[in-house]
Amino acid sequence: MKGFLLAVASMGVLVVLSMVLLRVYRGRKYYRMFLLAFAGALGFYSFCFYRSSPDLGFLPSEWMLGNAQSDFWNGVLVLSLTFHLYWNTTYAVALTGFSSNLMIHLAQPHGRSLDELLEIYGAKLPLDGVLAWRIDNLIKGRCLVQGAMGFQLLPKGRVVARIGRFLKMLYGVKGEVS
Amino acid sequence: MIEKGVILSLVLISACAFIQILTAHILKLRRTFPLLMSLLFMSLPIYVFLFLQIAPAVDRLALCNGLFLHLLIFFNYVQCFYYITQPVTIRMLEEFLKAPGERLTLEELKTSYGLSHMIQARLETLAQNGYARRQGDRYALAPRGKFFAEAFQGVRKLFGVTYYLDQNVFGEEAKTHHAE
Question: Which residues contact A134 (CB under 8 A, 6 or more apart)?
Fold first, then answer.
């Protein structure tokens, strides 16, 4: 249980570290700060695990695992899985989620009409914000290339699209799911 | 023992995924989340039973650790499922895959999967799940939606992060006049 308890403590360190890093970070790649915080928390966990006594100074003997290696990797697994949940909830949903942002814009006494929302998202611009952001990232990520005839799918983008299409077909998903 | 617990969890979650796939194809469910939660609750007693079969001598602490890991792995699986089904970017790439020569102009992309389609689909999903309600031509948040909208805003304030569309990232003026 030493690994488990240290993983929980390291998760606390990770949350605080990610908040601090995001507050000082000025770029657009927020996920990098989360990964940095995870690396820091993993280092903190490993340091504490190997520097502390097997019983952490308070654990009863029946709470201690005989195999220290198993205990260590159990903690790593708990920390990694918890980090992924935290990352998804904060980064992918609360901070950058499209539906989350839509909900924030709907938080008006009388709500919003579709036209108002389209204006907010820049639908009248030649390249609206949603498409601009994604096309920009897809070109940088070598999934698309821009030519005279429009945008062309590249091998990397084709692989991602095919995997996505296959998995959606496998799960019987059509359109948006909830 | 931890290894056995993790393998057992992976086997059970694979079985849950198989049931999810079968159910989705047979029943054509519109909402997946309740099904995923039902599968999770069904898997818990099965996990305990099988855990005690493969390790009859273990103490309660090992069982609790195993159950906790099972919960974590299951929720990670749920998140991975939504990684496939929700992202706008994957849907955009699929539109390219469907297009002749895997090529699209901006106008063609806007027609097949434009902003209007994206927003309309999300609004309908929010309304269907009880987060928003339609009032004439307007959409307003239901109490549940208000709670989450405030929570998301709180998280953004806590982290000091602005949404990417509200930033001046493409040389446009930040859309601050729309901010609440």
Answer: B88, B89, B92
